[in-house]
């Protein structure tokens, strides 16, 4: 496998010039480690003398679904604590007798559970975290389970609650003890971040209440409403930690580290689990747009401008971290750039 570093750097530099994002950090590697990495642009356009760095902290947004929820559910599954195909109501008293009780963990992981498509937590349930939890777990389904693939934040929120129920630990503690600490991901944590760490955090969207860009506080409103910790979003991370996570995923048996999940969960997840339904999905991961099944390249994105790719067949992983949300919510420019980055990283 090859890659084109010069073209990657030119592509990402162009993204800065075109104001797709203020700056970007990237890396690619294989099961042995990082093969190439780089940075471009600045941390904050208001401070043009401060460059983006490889240790810049990013709001991971929906990468939280992989780093905290997918990894924790995998640990519980490999340990024999969770049956992915058992209706939740048969073992989880909080949802017994409610519509969610007929849903399985597998359906949540493939976004086929039929749960509502939008979070709308404050509008529906108020601001008390316990009342939000109760409301989410008792909510009506949007459609029958297994009928369609529809991406929804609620799937990860519910699975986060399930992981807490089965482990007896808050999600942040569970992810730390089962995944982040064992893999040496010492800079990965839920926010809000302490001031010294926030200083090297990439700012995201302008907060209308304070007239400043969010920095060290999750952009995702649901995460902020729930105190910073939930299955939807809220994790902050750095390039090296994501590299360690993805490197482990390519060869867990050969790794000096041992996370709670291993090769069985990884292989099970990086396989299409939605049958003939479209768009095709594995477990939370999905095939990278523009790739074939033969290429075996999987991806997960974050709304703030983050993304990570992995291909067991090609023995390759890649990470692209940006704070594109500083400028806009428009997904178009970054979507095109991400596809080109993936092509250049997995040549």
Structural overview:
Residues 9-336 form the Beta-lactamase-related domain. The chain has 347 residues and is α+β, with helices and mostly antiparallel strands. 33% of the residues lie in helices and 14% in strands. The protein is built from 12 helices and 11 strands. It has helices spanning 5-17, 64-78, 105-109, 121-125, 129-138, 153-167, 171-180, 195-198, 221-225, 239-250, 263-269, 332-345; strands at 23-30, 33-41, 58-59, 189-190, 206-207, 212-213, 235-237, 286-287, 298-302, 306-311, 316-322. A 6-stranded antiparallel sheet has the order 2-1-11-10-9-8, sandwiched between helices. The longest helix is centred in the first third of the chain and has 15 residues, at 64-78. The radius of gyration is 19 Å and the shape is globular. The protein starts with a helix and ends with a helix.
Q: Taking strands numbered 1, 2, ... along the chain, how are they ordered across the largest sheet?
A: 2-1-11-10-9-8
Q: How many DSSP helices?
A: 12
Which whole number gives the mean pLDDT? 97
Spans of at least 5 consecutive residues whose pLDDT stays below 50 are none
Spatial shape? globular
Termini gap = 6 Å
Q: Secondary-structure element order, as H and E?
A: HEEEHHHHHHEHEEHEHHEEEEH
Structural class label: alpha+beta
What portion of residues belong to β-strands?
A: 5-15%
Q: Using only CA atoms, what is the Rg?
A: 19 Å
Number of strands: 11
Helix content: 25-40%
- The biggest beta sheet, please? 6 strands, antiparallel
Oligomer type? single chain
